[in-house]
Specification:
The complex is a heterodimer. By secondary structure, chain A is α+β, with helices and mostly antiparallel strands. Chain A contains three helices and 28 strands. In chain A, the strands form seven sheets. Chain A has a four-stranded antiparallel sheet with strand order 1-28-27-26, with no helix packed on it. Chain A has a four-stranded antiparallel sheet with strand order 2-3-4-5, with no helix packed on it. In chain A, β12 and β13 (220-224) form a beta hairpin. In chain A, α1 (2-24) packs antiparallel against α2 (31-65). Chain A is globular. Chain B is an all-alpha fold. Chain B contains four helices and no strands. Chain B has helices at 2-21, 28-42, 47-50, 66-75. The radius of gyration of chain B is 27 Å and the shape is elongated. The relative contact order of chain B is 0.08. Classes of the chains: A alpha+beta, B mainly alpha. At the A-B interface, α1, α2 and β17 of A face α1, α2 and α3 of B. Chain A: One of its GO terms (biological process) is signal transduction.
Amino acid sequence: MVVCCCLGRTATWVSYQLKIHAQKYMRSPLIPEMATQEVQLNETLAHLKSESESLKSKLEEERAKLHDVELHQVAEKVEGLGQFVMKTRRTLKGHGNKVLCMDWCKDKRRIVSSSQDGKVIVWDAFTTNKEHAVTMPCTWVMACAYAPSGCAVACGGLDNKCSVYPLSLDKNENLAAKKKSVAMHTNYLSACSFTNSDMQILTSSGDGTCALWDVESGQLLQSFHGHAADVLCLDLAPSETGNTFVSGGCDKKANVWDMRSGQCIQSFETHESDINSVRYYPSGDAFASGSDDATCRLYDLRADREVAIYSKESIIFGVSSVDFSLSGRLLFGGYNDYTINVWDVLKGTRVSILFGHENRVSTLRVSPDGTAFSTGSWDHTLRIWA
Amino acid sequence: MTSTSTLSSMRRLVEQLKLEASVERIKVSQAAAELQQYCLQNAGKDALLVGVPTGSNPFREPRSCSIGQDVVLVLGLDLGLD
């Protein structure tokens, strides 16, 4: 593990420096004290290292003790799902480049999407009309989100910021003029989400942190440190389950955070590659993740472990985004091989594979009332499926 | 000094691991049963799972005319489309 290598190198470096100092300042009376301090430091480091190793194995032991059955075994008696007839019902064309992110409005018909060419578009998904369009000053707008009120959208990407645009009813008004810069990171913005109100935004970044911001003042309310590499995605717990959110990153970890204290309360590391997407199960007791290792996984928060893996030998391309159907029975995954795989969450089997996009599926969200789901792709389009 | 910052980050790691170890856990059988119960309880409302009566899923209507569509929805007409 990286930590052990660093410690090993530091310990060697420290003892080498000690030798050099000792040779140079043989006659100095300070030497014995310096030497003792260095040695003590080394001992403390070694002690902490062994303590962390034993804590890690204890954690695994405790988790394993409660692993008495698999989810699909519990679900054996549940009726299997029949054939699914899901097809593209709408195609939203208008982006000039790869669609990177999208989000539904709470009104269940509007969608905001963002793309590589810097454009952010608000669509009416029923009619496929474009209602608003903004050009961001940066390319690769990797994150966008609709405000709960439906009156604003937030977006950001390579500009390292998250900006909020109030949506005007007047189509002629220049949206860019009212733009408010809210979040500032030291690397790209990978995801953003409003909390329960228009007043706060949660962001994740390539700088390895997540942060909670006040929209009005732009003030940083809380920051979340713990990922060892870029954070790629986040999802807020459904409001009934309290103030937590989950994030996934390039360090292969999914972390659950307490929004008030900034503390990481649970951490899961079973994926074999970057975690591109995380989404809470509708009850808030579990979350799913999608990764470059071509698998989706389900983690139960109360059992504190992974409880299901959704994979097939024939699926070798990474998952870019995941979302649950309203009841949590279906898990939709958008893949880099241009397809959408639909999984039976309880039984662990694939129930359907959907074709249509002509390049990788980069984003996928189920509508707020569960009547449809939308996908965005590198083929420049968005599709609504039902 | 490199060793001091390594020391403090190791201390943080140990504290974090202690916190994670102290989490209260339940058995997978119980957790799985509750996930299953939630699914089954809400299955009826899940349009993508069970489908909905023709006419009540706005996306299954063709978008020929947005005004006409609103009228259709308001009057609750089932034109047998798609």
